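ARCHIVE CARD
CATEGORY: sequence design from structure
SOURCE FIELD: tokenized fold
FIELD CONTENT:
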């Protein structure tokens, strides 16, 4: 069951970025450099319904995928707390996407009151959850790099270094999204492969 549900974790980032690409094409003159992603779903945008549906689908996939991370990591990690926190962080991001689709910008509920920021901690939490697994060294290195890169970009978005300006805020937002979202699909795929190997080993041991 957990391996099946992990497919939703793989789909979530794909749906998110596909929505941005499609809606950008539907809005001639929209700037990926200077405009926020959420403007694609705001009043006045072309087909905001497509944007809302897309990000809600991504959010729903992340919620299911987050549950799969909890179940899957329980089989590959010791203890319950870190797998639970990892999955809940991904689920929180998914919930924020659903709320963002239900309440278009500039509704104050569009930002889900910062709930989506929980995704920032997820790579580190997963890294800690599998820290004792010698067979997942590559994934651990990847997760640590994601955490550091997304943390640096988030700090820049929050004003550290004064490098983000209105004229290119959209570019920075997309850079942060690329650092903080696609890893979910990569991690879900790696976890699925690790679980497949474990299942195969278990079947061989019973034979």
């Amino acid at each position: 069951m957990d391996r099946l549900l992990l497919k939703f974790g793989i789909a979530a980032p794909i749906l998110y970025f596909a929505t941005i690409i499609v809606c950008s094409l539907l809005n001639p003159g929209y700037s990926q450099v200077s405009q926020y992603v959420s403007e694609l779903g705001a009043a006045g945008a072309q087909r905001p319904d497509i944007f809302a549906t897309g990000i809600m689908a991504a959010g729903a996939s992340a919620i299911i995928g987050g549950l799969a991370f909890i179940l899957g990591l329980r089989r590959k990690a010791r203890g319950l707390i870190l797998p639970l926190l990892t999955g809940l962080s991904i689920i929180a991001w998914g919930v924020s996407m659903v709320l963002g689709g239900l309440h278009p910008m500039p509704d104050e509920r569009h930002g889900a009151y910062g709930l989506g920021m929980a995704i920032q901690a997820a790579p580190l939490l997963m890294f800690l959850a599998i820290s004792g697994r010698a067979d997942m060294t590559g994934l651990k290195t990847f997760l640590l790099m994601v955490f550091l890169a997304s943390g640096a970009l988030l700090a820049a978005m929050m004003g550290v270094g004064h490098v983000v300006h209105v004229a290119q805020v959209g570019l920075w937002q997309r850079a942060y999204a690329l650092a903080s979202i696609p890893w979910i699909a990569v991690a879900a795929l790696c976890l699925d492969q690790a679980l497949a190997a474990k299942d195969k080993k278990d079947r061989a041991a019973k034979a």
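CARD ANNOTATION: The first helix runs from residue 2 to 25. The chain has one domain: 2-206.
SHELF: design records, drawer C
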